[in-house]
TrEMBL record:
Molecular function GO terms recorded: proton-transporting ATP synthase activity, rotational mechanism; proton-transporting ATPase activity, rotational mechanism
Entry-linked InterPro entries: ATP_synth_B-like_membr_sf, ATP_synth_b/b'su_bac/chlpt, ATP_synth_F0_bsu_bac, ATP_synthase_B_chain
Protein function: F(1)F(0) ATP synthase produces ATP from ADP in the presence of a proton or sodium gradient. F-type ATPases consist of two structural domains, F(1) containing the extramembraneous catalytic core and F(0) containing the membrane proton channel, linked together by a central stalk and a peripheral stalk. During catalysis, ATP synthesis in the catalytic domain of F(1) is coupled via a rotary mechanism of the central stalk subunits to proton translocation. Component of the F(0) channel, it forms part of the peripheral stalk, linking F(1) to F(0). The b'-subunit is a diverged and duplicated form of b found in plants and photosynthetic bacteria.
Membrane association type: Single-pass membrane protein
KW Ubl conjugation (keyword) present: no
GO CC annotation: endomembrane system; plasma membrane; proton-transporting ATP synthase complex
Residue stretches spanning the membrane: 12-32
Coiled coil start-end: 46-91
Name recorded for this polypeptide: ATP synthase subunit b
NCBIfam families: ATP_synt_b, PRK14471.1
Pfam families in the record: ATP-synt_B
Assigned protein family: Belongs to the ATPase B chain family.
Organism: Flavobacterium omnivorum
Keyword Cell membrane: yes
Amino acid sequence: MDKLINDFSFGLFIWQIVLFVGLILLLKKFAWKPILDAVNDREEGIKNALLSAENARKEMQNLQADNQRILQEARLERDNMLKEAREMKEKMVADAKNEAQVQGLKMIEQAKVAIEGEKNAAMAELKLQVSTLSLSIAERLLKDELSNKEAQTKLVEKLLGDVKLN
């Protein structure tokens, strides 16, 4: 420490201060402004980047909200479409049942008419066969009874008696 105090030179100290002040003035004139401008430009760039990031974040939130809204609307629309489809299906099934019921009733009515017609035709044929059989039996009986002269006379008298009574 003694050596430091002994070696101290006032002139050298002044020169060092002058050089230091000159260096600071040169730096201020030539280097300080560009360095501060660069720092300010960088600071401005960082602020702009932060603003852009904030705007992007807000825009993303808006887009997410829009996406949620659109998704909700799509779900509602899907639900409405499914509801309409179910209603249409139920209506079509009901219409088909009603149509089938109407067709069934028509077929039953047609079957009843056909059965009635077949029944009438069968009855007419049965009557025809009964009358044919009755005539055939009557013919045979008459032949048997008319073969005998005495039986013929008796039958004619009986028929004449029946006619007079009516």
